[in-house]
Specification:
It is built from 16 helices and 20 strands. The strands form 5 sheets. Strands 8-7-16-17-18-15-19 form a 7-stranded mixed beta sheet, sandwiched between helices. It is 37% helix and 20% strand. Bound molecules: flavin-adenine dinucleotide.
Length: 465
């Protein structure tokens, strides 16, 4: 009988837990596995606080369903009845002259928006006639949007959204990692506008031809009734391997027969045939550097940002200028210490009592990292002042909760995908059967992390050595 292979998953965020789940599903009792998590809880950035009245999300608050992996995993785990779709207008706003201006989503709204000048609008409408770029190498998202839609669209529409949603600098962000679909449309159809219409038509025609049923229409964003932590709790409940909390892997030693010995911070060690690192790239760097200094440096040099989320609830009557949007993003030019504000109670009302308006402010990002270290009272006061200027808040918050994420999310620089591929190629020969996955590699949303976990597990073969 073949010896059971031992697998260690380093990192108990959604990527590590999903990897453990898909390993268990693929190999059953052919393996034994251990998930090693440094902190006292599983979930990583997924962190939900539940009080008797509120469900407060500290990190992610929902997932997109356009990428199906998170939705599909929830269904597979039997969570269908626990899924909640968004409510409300679905509108998003950009702060303009101190007030929220709706992000235009159709040609009439675009013609009317104060966010672009007449010249900027004409340039944007010309997108279908702009010739495609012949080169396929990665470029910054700023260059891509400026090329396709004009500099105004890049500066006044895309930049604020990226600064707030991706906590990223449009001048540096790689198009390939997060917006590869747009470059594909440009390459295939010559334009994003033409591409969106044509690909929609093609999909419809292909579905008709194959007789396939129309896929179920889903709310664009979903969460779970008790918060996203419910996904983490359900996943960990299904895992039959060893799950270690408050345990960090501090070093990886190569031992005989191509196996590894993982040093833990509690003085113990774990023998492993296969290792999956589902940790931030700087943490991968610490473990890989002793084997290859250059690769360690490369992984260490990948930047991360820092952010704090400050959630506050107000009595509905205390909000002078009621808000119907999912969020307001703040352009850099506004010069205020707020990156964005999310309308948490508007997006999903089950998370709070009916008479409460819940807003979540984002603070930090490039050049403002110091704000995250402000004492709690000062941070709440700072965010409240900014929200007051926008919405007119008469009373004090009925509840407030701060989460500090330092580091928060990776900043994918141009060429990031090539670098990750180079690291994986080098690892395959230098440290065979050690894999990297998770948000540091090829996508940071929850569905991305689940897809990356699936892809990593699909590469693993137990017949070696
Ligand atoms: C404020 C904020 C809001 C967000 N909003 C959304 C959203 O609405 N929707 C969405 O889809 N995504 C959102 N994201 C992104 C998403 O939450 C993350 O990209 C994703 O959860 C990352 O998962 P991960 O498993 O790759 O990494 P992490 O969640 O960072 O998990 C990595 C884990 O590894 C552990 N670890 C590190 N080093 C070691 C070691 N040496 N040994 C053992 N363990 C170790 C860490 O403690 C951590 O728990 C948001 C992120 C942030 C910060």
């Amino acid at each position: 009988m073949r010896r059971k292979k031992k697998i260690t998953i380093i990192g108990g965020g959604i990527a590590g837990l999903a990897a453990a789940y898909y390993l268990q599903k693929k190999f059953g009792d052919e393996i034994t596995y251990t998930v090693v998590e440094k902190s006292a809880v599983f979930g990583g950035k997924i962190s939900t606080t539940r009080t008797d009245k509120f469900i407060i999300e500290g990190g992610p608050e929902s997932f997109v369903t356009r990428k199906r992996e998170a939705y599909d995993l929830c269904i597979e785990l039997g969570l269908e009845d626990r899924l909640v779709g968004t409510e409300g207008s679905g509108k998003n706003y950009i702060l303009h002259d101190g007030r929220p201006a709706a992000v235009p989503t159709n040609p009439i709204a675009l013609a009317r928006t104060p966010l672009l000048s007449g010249k900027g609008k004409i340039r944007l409408f010309k997108e279908p006639f702009v010739p495609p770029r012949m080169e396929t190498s990665d470029e910054t998202f700023s260059t891509f949007i400026s090329r396709r839609l004009g500099a105004e669209a890049a500066d006044h529409l895309a930049a604020p959204a990226l600064r707030s949603i991706y906590l990223a600098d449009i001048e540096k962000l790689s198009t390939a990692v997060s917006f590869g679909r747009f470059t594909e449309l440009e390459q295939k159809y010559g334009s994003i506008t033409k591409g969106m219409f044509s690909s929609m038509k093609e999909k419809k025609a292909a579905r008709k031809a194959s007789g396939e049923a129309k896929p179920k229409k889903l709310s664009p964003f979903m969460t779970l009734r008790s918060g996203l932590l419910e996904l983490v709790e359900t996943l960990t409940g299904r895992l039959t391997g060893d799950l270690l909390l408050e345990t960090a892997v501090t070093a990886i030693k190569k031992v005989e027969d191509g196996r590894y010995q993982l040093q833990l911070n509690n003085g113990r060690s774990l023998d492993s045939d296969i290792v999956i690192m589902a940790i931030p790239t700087f943490a991968m760097a610490d473990l890989i550097a002793p084997h290859d200094g250059k690769m360690g440096e490369l992984l260490h040099s990948m930047p991360y940002n820092a952010v704090a989320t400050v959630t506050m609830a107000f009595d509905a009557g205390d909000v002078e200028r009621p808000f119907d949007g999912f969020g307001v993003v703040v352009p850099k030019e506004a010069g205020i210490p707020l990156l964005a504000c999310e309308g948490m109670s508007i997006k999903f009302s089950h998370r709070n009592p009916e008479d409460q308006v819940v807003l979540r402010g984002f603070v930090g990002g490039k050049g403002h990292e110091h704000l995250i270290s402000l004492p709690d009272d000062a941070l709440v006061a700072l965010v409240k002042k900014q929200l007051d200027n926008i919405f007119g808040l008469k009373g004090e918050p009925t509840i407030s909760r701060i989460y500090r994420w330092q580091p928060a999310t990776p900043q994918y620089a141009v060429g990031h995908l090539e670098t990750i591929t180079a690291v994986e190629t080098k690892l395959a020969t230098l440290l065979p059967n050690i894999y990297i996955t998770g948000s540091g590699t090829r996508g940071m949303g929850i569905p991305d992390c689940i897809r990356l976990a699936q892809e990593t597990v699909s590469k693993i073969d137990l017949i070696f050595g």
